[in-house]
Design goal:
The chain is of the alpha/beta class and about 250 residues long. The chain contains 8 helices and 9 strands. The protein has a domain of about 160 residues: Alpha-Beta Barrel (TIM Barrel), CATH 3.20.20.190.
């Protein structure tokens, strides 16, 4: 896929599955997002101690599971037994952490699109990018539309580029730090994914002139979504799957 020439992804992306309506980064959340009509999801991927790619945002287990400590320090045999739903609500108690393979099966079976944010345990930036990209390339081999790999960490995107150069990449930004544009071009990124407040007409024009797409996170208010549409950006990532209709 030449993602710079043809952008196959929908405009609306459900953040971590279903935003805050279900426990983030669990299959229950992705199912709920799909029930709200979403066809593309964002997830966070990192490595277990024994190299399994699993879904979790934080470096530590404390906020979204019934365990403590660094998630990447544990083998998958331990992580797979944790409760990743009870923290959210009693209805989701016992919901497990999924692997990227679990989510890939769900997406591929129903024709859903995926944005995989590479979320490395600190110190494993490049290695996580390599392994996530290798796994994504294996799981989506032969698929018409591959997942979009994104990260705040250029080292992770560099690892992804080296491991699976054919997969599209996007640079995540929470500030427009010095050199971001040159690094995105050096990494052959197809997209810039900004905190939505960072976009203005000049930055959108700069990114589009370079053949890249403009995505935004996390857009939860109608005024913000309208501003981004007027600027001509390409996609918005939202928690509010109950507010924004993706059709």
């Amino acid at each position: 896929m030449n993602a710079k020439a043809a952008w196959p992804y929908p405009r609306w992306v459900a953040h971590r599955g279903a935003g805050k309506l279900a426990p983030e980064n669990t299959l229950a959340a992705f199912r709920l997002g799909a029930q709200h009509g979403y066809r593309m999801f964002e997830c966070d991927a990192k490595l277990s101690a024994d190299g399994v790619v699993f879904l979790m945002h934080d470096a530590t287990l404390d906020r979204t599971t019934n365990a403590q400590g660094v998630g990447g320090d544990r083998p998958w045999s331990e992580l797979s037994r944790l409760d990743a739903g009870g923290w959210h609500s009693r209805a989701y108690a016992g919901e497990p952490l999924p692997t990227l393979e679990n989510l890939a099966r769900f997406c591929l079976a129903s024709g859903y699109f995926l944005n995989i944010e590479i979320k490395p345990t600190p110190g494993l930036e490049q290695r996580t990018g390599e392994v996530v990209a290798q796994e994504a390339a294996r799981l989506w081999a032969g698929a018409e539309v591959p997942p979009l790999l994104t990260s705040f960490r250029p080292e992770s995107l560099q690892g992804a580029l080296q491991a699976a150069p054919g997969l599209p990449r996007g640079l995540l930004l929470d500030t427009l730090w010095s050199g971001w544009f040159d690094i995105a071009r050096r990494l052959d990124c197809v997209a810039i994914v900004c905190n939505h407040a960072l976009w203005d007409a000049q930055t959108v024009a700069q990114v589009k002139a370079a053949g890249m797409r403009c995505l935004s996170y996390t857009v939860n208010d109608e005024w913000a979504a309208q501003r981004l549409l007027q600027l001509g950006t390409d996609a918005v990532i939202t928690d509010r799957v109950d507010l924004f209709s993706p059709t």
